[in-house]
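Open question from group meeting: does this chain pack into something compact, or does most of it stay loose? Before anyone orders reagents, we agreed to write out a predicted structure and look at it together. Recording both the input and the output here so the notebook holds the full record.
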Amino acid sequence: MSDETWFEKGFSLAILEKYTEALEAFEKEIEINPKNDTAWLFKGLSLYDLKKYVEAMLSFEKAIEINPKNDTAWYSKGTIHLNFERYVEAMLSFEQAIEINQNNDNAWNGKGLCLDNLKKYAEAMHAFEKAIEIDPKNDIALSNRGICILELKGNKKGIEAFEKAIEINPKNYRAWNNLGVVLARLERYVEAIEAYKKAIEINPKEDLPAYNLGELFLNLGNLEGATKIVKDTLQRNENLASILALQGRIDIKEKNYDVASKNFRKAISLDIGNPKHLLWEAYANFLKINFSLDLKDKKYKEGVMAIIRNLETAVPLSEKYGNEMSAYILFFLGYFYFKSGDMFTAKEKLEECIRLKSKSKIQTSASILLDNIWNHKIKPTWWRWWLNSPLYRWPKRIIFFILSLVTFAILALLFLHPFISWWFFSLQINWSLYGIFVTILIIILISPSIERLKVRDLEVILHSPPHYEPVLSPTIMEEKIREVGKNIRNRIN
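Structure tokens returned:
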């Protein structure tokens, strides 16, 4: 078989998605002509489709070594970096591809995705617009530009961008999905449902629109609709963490707490490192023990301690998810330490939660719980209440200092009055007012101890964890990788 035939055979097999056989054909081509950078490129593309990313990267790098001007190999290398969230490295590869070929719209699109993930939205917008300038019918760049517009200009402008992408390519299911997300944000629920359904109709194998539709149904109270979406999606693929988590939340609504816990546990095993699943599992487990066990039951405390152990593992995981997620985890830990009777650790976790200054409602809940624990469980002495309060510490210290100073000055005057009166005969003191004033100051100073005499039964409600948000769908690069192959094939022909 000739060199060209091995290459042609490999390409034909790749078009048929027979990637293993295609890989073998490209390897045969390379055996005959090891300096064929295009064969190395296509070997890498086949490995990429087989999800052998390390080997694919090596093949792309070999193609670049043979031909440093192979902009498609640079672009493909950037794609792998991008998919593994190595945005800086990906951008360097895309920029190298652009330097070689200024008209590589796919590389401009990839660079835009990197900048968008790095939250450099203005620069990302420029990159997407450059891709669209090169190819005005690049609906993928238009869709990704829409995501960027959401951050810069709001939902209504985003709708226009996604509608433009759909106008160019009505089969762009990612644009339909994104349109549904924005419509849902604007509470245009009927239109959002239709957009999600259109995305599912175009690509029934894509899970993201199905998840978003199920999420919307759940939030609207349509448990039947959400359940049907989950059932249909899991029949197709039972190992989807987002869908399992959605099923877990449906189970909670239906008070099937044990089943919910199992679904969240499976989601955790599939989506390792996502603390949101851990939070929801903790919530489901707490509801289970709270409604099935007595507070004085030994198993109740054991259940709470098991929840605490699991949540402690989520603390380091939450850092990459921002302050809101960290705040929720710390609040949950504070709440469960409170339930276990460990008030000082509960106080410590709640203080950490408040210091994060997240803008979520959990901040207020943490302050209320911390105030109750400090005043009615820890019960500090009155001077510790003023000096070491976990809430408004410095204002309380300043007030305490002023009150103490005034009280000390008045008491000093009382003590020194007999001596001062020898020199200041005209000094007259209204002892009744004097006594009342001193009494008021002392009452204010010791008021924390008086307040604690009031018996309070702490009823603290545990809020549900943060909701799963509908997910926008940036076009990663699988579709574009295949387009690249077709374009090269056309050039070869």
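Observations to bring back to the group:
The chain has a mean pLDDT of 85.
Residues 384-452 form one domain.
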